[in-house]
Amino acid sequence: MVVTPRVTFCCTDTKTQPWLDGLRAALPNATVELWSPGAGPADYAVVWAPPQRFFDEQVALKGIFNTGAGVDALMKLRMPSNVPVVRLDDAGMSVQMAEYVCHAVIRHFREFDAYEADMQGGKWSYRKPRLRGDFPVGVMGLGVLGERVSRALAQFDFPVLGWSRSPKTVKGVRCFSGEAGFTDFLAATRVLVCLLPLTPDTEGILRRDTLAQLLPGAYVINVARGGHLIDDDLMALIASGHVAGATLDVFRTEPLPAAHPFWQHPQITLTPHTSARTLREESIAQIAGKILALHNGAPIASLAGVVDLKKGY
Ligand code: NAP
Ligand code: GLV
């Protein structure tokens, strides 16, 4: 007997209908329904930041598919402990993240903001070229996104350092790992890029005592989660001159509240959590492929992107 997989969709901040249409087209033998309170049991859930009630009610799940790379919003909920959680594994994000970070690093290194201001003021002037070797870029997190970003930066001949939990080897990148490697990593970094997952170990990791260890005139690029950064510590270090500025894509409260001082800060560049977007077509293809694989009996370990619930990413 052919068993029809039942898929439930519950994503906040997402245009629902194109996802439902896409999932139905990719899984023609499944039922795909938008979740609402009281809905019947499903086998597979496609979610982004669902309410607690979703997991309280959906007690027959065999797989939970997150429509983003970061699972910190899910990890705050009580989820069934024996159901695999699968996050997006790249799905078109790593190239976007490489573009964003390279753009931010190069914009800072080449002083394009200052040139833009000069040109807008009708001023034709040159600045002394900076030496690439003076701008070592340290990437925190060498996972799917961090590795791609660090390799892209190395293509521009920046000295690139990387830091991860377990030891890694990435061509062209000086790799550090664990708490033991953190101090040396920070001490050799001028431009810091955060691409860590938000977990109890990494919450608030961009704070006064860590950022103070960076080379003077440091620059901070946070594209991971707002919870990594202690906002006041960044502002204080910019005021002291130790940090030259920052590019921030993620914030503790999103949208960033209108009264937040980051909005008006001349040395802080903001974007609205857009450095690497979930691309619907790629993501649906990836998720549908994994639902079918699981439904046809593939072992969980054969899927890319399965979250280690103990580590929290
Ligand atoms: P990933 O593949 O899971 O990689 C995470 C990396 O962080 C791994 O290298 C891991 O080390 C390292 N790490 C985790 N905890 C650590 C710790 N305590 N100390 C040192 N290193 C640690 O994740 P990803 O796909 O690259 O995504 C990273 C994050 O980017 C996501 O969690 C999400 O928050 C964020 N993100 C943001 C956007 C945006 O638009 N702003 C878009 C997508 C994702 P190991 O390799 O040793 O495990
Ligand atoms: C976006 O921030 C993601 O985690 O995919």
Could you characterize the architecture of this molecule?
- The chain has helices at residues 16-26, 52-57, 72-75, 93-109, 112-120, 144-155, 178-187, 208-211, 231-240, 280-295, and strands at residues 6-11, 31-34, 44-48, 63-66, 85-86, 137-140, 160-164, 173-177, 191-194, 218-222, 243-248, 268-270.
- β4, α3 (72-75) and β5 form a beta-alpha-beta unit.
- α1 packs across α10 (280-295) and α4 (93-109) crosses α6 (144-155).
- It contains ten helices and twelve strands.
- By secondary structure, the chain is α/β, with parallel strands linked by helices.
- It folds into two domains: 6-91 and 278-302, Rossmann fold; 93-270, Rossmann fold (3-Layer(aba) Sandwich).
- The radius of gyration is 21 Å and the shape is elongated.
- It has a seven-stranded parallel beta sheet, with helices on both faces. A five-stranded parallel beta sheet has the order 2-1-3-4-5, with helices on one face.
- The longest helix is centred in the first third of the chain and has 17 residues, at 93-109.
- It binds NADP nicotinamide-adenine-dinucleotide phosphate and glyoxylic acid.
- Glyoxylic acid binds next to loops.
